[in-house]
Specification:
There is one protein chain. This protein has helices at 27-40, 53-63, 104-110, 148-154, 157-163, 172-178, 186-191, 225-239; strands at 4-7, 14-17, 42-46, 86-88, 126-135, 143-147, 167-170, 195-198, 200-202, 209-211, 217-220, 245-246, 253-258, 262-266, 277-284. With 286 residues, it is α+β, with helices and mostly antiparallel strands. The protein has one domain (4-284): 4-Layer Sandwich (Double-stranded beta-helix), CATH 3.60.130. Strand 9 and strand 10 form a beta hairpin. The longest helix is centred in the last third of the chain and has 15 residues, at 225-239. The protein is globular and about 50 Å long. The two termini are 29 Å apart. The structure holds N-oxalylglycine and manganese (II) ion. Manganese (II) ion (MN) is lined by residues 112, 116, 118, 264.
């Protein structure tokens, strides 16, 4: 196997050409890719054509245990991509039509335009996400990422000391409503209870310290809400400083990011005019 690695940002992120997730499935190739992910945190793996759903799930399973949909289906909605291992991140309904503007499911999907890391609202968090582009709009709809190890390293010492030992509560419904979605029903809420995670953790593979925040963060244990809000706003402003942020999208890529050390978001696009068909396979902690 010969492939090329091109660093895309001074701090992290790489484009990998010549690695084929359909073919390079032997243990050495997978270990090589994992090592690149540990180093660069975000890797755009180039392919001429999108992987099939089976190929996509198959490669994800080589990286780690694949998360499966646990939520009951919303009544009356068909699954456009009929695999429990694939998160359909498109703006299309079960019949392949663009969701109307006021559709609740579209409203929840739009929350992906807030900075977050995947599944931080689960005690068993996401490790790698593999996002595959099937159709991208002619303008907008890129995916921005940021390296939270670099962010942590550069924090003032005083801030590092302040964050030591703090625990945040992450809630899926918090970010859905922050993104403009409606209040969930009690049944919906029960499908995704909140989870607690340290604001600073050590990345298991690289050993580097990471600031672990997301749009899902609702509160900080033992801290009054207004104080938590202003602390989170301060951290957000630092995190999103342009020197940390990269927009890594090209059609044909499978973008893989390490959720334990990065944040990401989709950028705006006209989701009433253009189709954007993105599909995600997610690995989770053991
Ligand atoms: C995701 C996500 C953003 C995008 O798939 O987890 O947040 O650009 N996607 O689609
Ligand atoms: Mn996401």
């Amino acid at each position: 196997m010969t492939f090329e690695v091109e660093q895309l940002h001074p701090l992290y992120a790489a484009k990998i050409s010549g690695f084929d997730m359909r073919r390079d499935t032997n243990p050495e190739s997978v270990a090589t890719l994992k090592a690149l992910l540990d180093e660069y945190a975000v890797c755009a793996v180039r392919h001429e054509t999108p992987l099939t759903n089976e190929e996509h799930i198959g490669f994800g399973a080589l990286l780690g245990p694949v998360a499966r949909k646990s939520m009951p289906r919303i009544a009356g909605t068909g699954m456009r991509v009929p695999y429990n291992e694939i998160v359909d991140q498109s703006n299309l309904d079960g019949d392949g039509k663009i969701y109307p503007d006021r559709d609740k499911r579209l409203a929840y999907k739009r929350a992906n335009r807030l900075w977050h890391t995947d599944m931080s609202y689960r005690s068993n968090r996401a490790t790698w996400s593999l996002l595959s582009a099937h159709v991208v709009p002619p303008e907008g709809g890129e995916t921005e990422t940021t390296d939270m190890r670099a962010v942590y390293d550069d924090l003032p010492e005083k801030m590092k000391a302040r964050l030591e030992g703090l625990v945040a509560e992450h809630c899926y419904w918090h970010s859905r409503m922050l993104g403009g979605g409606p209040e969930p029903t009690p049944e919906e809420r029960a499908t995704r209870p909140p989870a607690q995670h340290s604001l600073v953790h050590t990345h298991p593979t690289s050993g580097r310290k990471v600031l672990y925040i997301a749009s899902h963060v609702r509160s900080i244990a033992g801290m009054p809400d207004d104080e938590a809000k202003s602390l989170l706003e301060e951290l957000r402003a630092i995190t999103l400083h342009p020197e940390y942020v990269y927009y890594p999208w090209t059609v044909g890529d499978v973008l893989i990011w390490d959720n334990l050390v990065t944040m990401h978001r989709g950028t705006d696009f006209d989701d009433q005019k253009y189709i954007r068909d993105m599909r995600r396979v997610t690995c989770r902690e053991e």
